[in-house]
Specification:
Oligomer: single chain
Order of helices and strands: EHHEHEHEHEEEHEEEHHHHEHEEEHH
Helix content: 40-55%
Number of helices: 13
Radius of gyration: 22 Å
Structural class: alpha/beta
Strand content: 5-15%
CATH superfamily of the largest domain: Type I PLP-dependent aspartate aminotransferase-like (Major domain)
């Protein structure tokens, strides 16, 4: 152990050489080379006129990707959880009631953040692996009359895509509740229409379907939501994430609040340029087609998906672990043999599912074939009742359609 007065032999600290993984887990996803190149460009000050122009471009690109005209559309300085806390911690005031879902790990995180903001949390129940039912949401809204309703559009812990979003938002607005949507695993990967679906607040992360390193995370608020933020009687409990203060930096004034992560904003700008070049609807279609081939391969080798077809989430495929197989050992072997990352389950599904991403730059035909081949090989070597060859054949057939 070294102390404050000791010298470090830098020769013992080798040059950084992280392994070159294929990232097919729940995030991060593979980063596009153009995004990596953007991060190597010269640093400028966070109030430099050139950076102010970049800020404007990022905001416009985020509006396109969220499918919104919201003026208040910004990248929060931090990971997706920072955008989540900015959304909940600003909109939920002490004494407010927030209705949250119980059908996944990240609904639980919504509840935790709402409590820390001083809110009273009530729940709308649904089993892990199933979406919220509009009728149950309507019943909970009528019973509790909340100020805020939150839901997870794409639940990373279960592989479930929430359908009927417009029904949920309409029910919430009938009770004058603002709607906060977790779109961390959906933005840029599956259909999301903030304005058309009448979502008041949506937050996301850059490291999933946008294929960008974490550090600057998308957030959008409607005028109604921002009015609530700006009319709070008490300040937000977080100075750093206080949107009434951030308004001065990301609004018209461009006044100093904190030092923005300039390089991460460069990266997000380039990632969003790639979204716009591909076209948002074409990007949604690509994710569905390639994830469909992955799903065909999993089912073709004899594995079962966790979510039913009607609410299957293309960007995050939850696959049931075969009987007698240790999911942690499988994930470790995939790293060791194939430099391939997939993940185990969380919360109620710990040990029961593999979570296999198909997001952004990782959503490519060669990666889909690779993950089906590798997982089949490892499972077969561990004695699982699978047919890897049939899985690969099913994947290739789906890709050729």
């Amino acid at each position: 152990m070294t102390g404050a007065d000791d010298k470090i032999d830098v020769s013992e600290i080798e040059e950084l050489t992280p392994p070159d993984r294929t990232l097919m887990g729940p995030g991060p996803s593979d980063v596009h080379p153009r995004v990596l190149r953007a991060m190597t460009t010269p640093l400028v000050g966070h109030l430099d006129p050139s950076f102010v122009e970049i800020m404007n471009e990022v905001q416009e690109l985020l509006r396109y990707t969220f499918r919104t005209d919201n003026q208040w559309t910004i990248p929060v300085s931090g990971t997706g959880s920072a955008a989540m806390e900015a959304a909940i911690g600003n909109v939920v005031e002490p004494g407010d009631t927030m209705l949250v879902p119980t059908n996944g790990y990240f609904g639980g995180r919504m509840a935790s953040m709402a409590r820390r903001a001083g809110g009273d949390v009530v729940e709308v129940d649904a089993p892990w692996g199933e979406p919220l039912e509009p009728a149950n949401v309507s019943d909970a809204l009528a019973e509790y009359d909340p100020d805020v309703f939150g839901f997870v559009h794409a639940e990373t812990s279960t592989g479930v895509l929430q359908p009927n979003v417009s029904e949920l938002t309409a029910a919430a607005h009938d009770h004058d509740a603002l709607v906060i949507a977790d779109t961390v695993t959906s933005l840029g990967g599956v259909e999301l229409r903030v304005d058309d679906w009448d979502i008041d607040v949506a937050y996301s992360g850059p490291q999933k379907c946008l294929s960008c390193p974490p550090g600057a995370s998308p957030l959008t608020l409607s005028e109604t939501a921002m009015e609530k933020v700006l009319s709070r009687e008490e300040d937000s409990r977080s100075w750093y994430l206080d949107l009434s203060l951030l308004e001065g930096y990301w609004g018209d004034e461009r006044a100093y609040h904190h030092t923005a992560p300039v390089t991460n904003v460069y990266a997000l700008r380039e990632a969003l340029r790639l979204v716009a070049e591909e076209g948002i609807e074409q990007r949604w279609a690509r994710h569905e087609r390639l994830a469909g081939a992955l799903k065909a391969g999993m089912e073709g080798m004899g594995l079962e998906m966790n979510a039913s077809d009607e609410y299957w989430l293309p960007s995050l495929n939850a696959v049931r672990v075969p009987d007698g197989i240790d999911d942690g050992e499988v994930c470790a072997e995939l790293l060791e043999r194939y430099d391939l990352e997939v993940a185990s389950g969380l919360g109620d599904l710990d040990g029961e599912i593999f979570r296999i991403g198909c997001m952004g730059h990782s959503a490519r035909p060669k990666n889909v074939v690779y993950v089906v081949t590798a997982l089949g090989d490892v499972l077969e070597s561990m004695g699982a009742d699978v047919d890897p060859g049939a899985g690969v054949s099913a994947t290739r057939s789906a890709l050729e359609e």
